[in-house]
Amino acid sequence: MSAPSVLVLGATGRTGGAVVDQLLDAHRGGELRLIAAVRRPEAAAAFAERGIETRHIDLDSAERHGLGHIVTALRDVRRVFLASGYDVRMLSQAKAAIDAARLAGVDHVVHLGVHAAPDTTVVHYGWHQLVEAYLAQSGLGRTNLHPTAFMQNLLMPVMSDPQSAVLTHYIGDAPTSWVDTDDIAAVAATVLRSPEQHDGQSYGLGAEVATIGGIADVLTDLTGRAWRYEPKEPGEFLAAVTAAGADPVYMDCVRNVFERTGEGSLPEAAATFDTVERITGRPATSLRAFLHRHRGHFTA
Ligand SMILES: NC(=O)c1ccc[n+]([C@@H]2O[C@H](COP(=O)([O-])OP(=O)(O)OC[C@H]3O[C@@H](n4cnc5c(N)ncnc54)[C@H](OP(=O)(O)O)[C@@H]3O)[C@@H](O)[C@H]2O)c1
Questions:
Q1: Residue of 19, 80, 84, 266 with the most ligand 1 atoms within 8 Å of its CB, for mutation
Q2: What whole-number distance in Å separates Cα of residue 112 and Cα of residue 114?
Q3: Has domain 5-209+267-298 been given CATH number 3.40.50.720?
Q4: Stretch 214-218: mean pLDDT, rounded?
Q5: pLDDT bracket for residue 97 (50, 70, 90)
Q6: Structural domain boundaries of the chain?
Q7: Parallel, antiparallel, or unpaired for β 33-38 and 201-205?
Q8: How far is it, in rounded angstroms, from Cα 87 to Cα 145?
Q9: pLDDT tens digits for 264-300?
Q10: What is the distance in A from the centroid of ligand 1 to the CA of 2?
Q11: 29 C-alpha vs ligand 1 centroid, how far in Å?
């Protein structure tokens, strides 16, 4: 029997890229056949250099050209990791991916969603829940990953300035939950290697709760420089990221999350779970370990 093919959508992104990294040994060992989906043809070379097949998939193209080429790109694929970006088009992108997966005979989809209360009124959290309801009715095997805030956000220019040792955030002094995307990927990789054991499950992912001031203190300790936190208004976040080209519809939802986290009306923002240890057998990455791993970024 040939090794099952696993296709990663979002392979050029933070979480999808980490899923590729985590599955590379299983690919090289012949346990599975890893395929990276790329929407920009120039992104293929880096995967080819690592011995990973790529297939060209632009989920937005379904609107104009239908599903045919996506179904073709999913030929002989058994398992799919589905991550989309920070854009309201995540709804149509995920629908196209799920429809094409069903038509191509895929067995199992692992969806990257978000942790939220079941009756959340946060708009983009609801989008993820609608995607997962659509996935549930598709008949495909499925596992949903529900992370809290990515530790990797702290590396973004809008949140950390290593030159002046300043962390910027938009949630005041509210404690919030953090998870390393490498840990999300480790759980995803475990599921993609044995999906039957995880069919129908949704896994919360959040390792540790901290305030931004608390994170600045850890950075001060790790780097020997006096890091400080400069709280800003959520509207300033929206202005900065949309000026940089981000989708204003999606980012206004994030602004709302920051506002509600700051005022304390979003308790799920501070949830933690034992998922990483339970699924992978090793503890989740702590904030201190994450910041230590990335100390090069924080040491100007
Ligand atoms: N940041 C957080 O704290 C957080 C917390 C919880 C949940 N989430 C969820 O995590 C997801 C984002 O994960 P991430 O940070 O790993 O994403 P990311 O780094 O922004 O990567 C997005 C990936 O999607 C690909 N993509 C975008 N549009 C596409 C299209 N039309 N067709 C095919 N591929 C397309 C991108 O390809 P290109 O490289 O070509 O652009 C990229 O590979 C979102 O759904 C978000 O709601 C985020």
A1: 84
A2: 7
A3: yes
A4: 98
A5: very high
A6: 5-209+267-298
A7: unpaired
A8: 18
A9: 999 999 999 999 999 999 999 999 999 999 999 999 7
A10: 30
A11: 28
Task: Give the mean pLDDT of 234-257.
Answer: 98
Is the predicted pLDDT of residue 252 greater than 80, yes or no? yes
Q: How far apart are CA 115 and CA 19, in angstroms?
A: 19
What's the pLDDT score for residue 103? Answer: 98
Pocket of ligand 1 (CB under 6 A): 9-16, 39-40, 57-60, 83-86, 90, 93, 112, 114, 147, 149-150, 153
Whole-prediction pTM value?
0.98
Angle between helix 248-263 and 234-243 (nearest 10):
160
At residue 223's C-alpha, the angle toward residues 220 and 229, to 5°, is 35
Question: Cα separation of 143 and 194, whole Å?
Answer: 11
* Distance from chain centroid for Cα 71: 24
Count how many Cα atoms sit within 13 Å of the Cα of residue 56 in the half-sphere of its side chain: 7
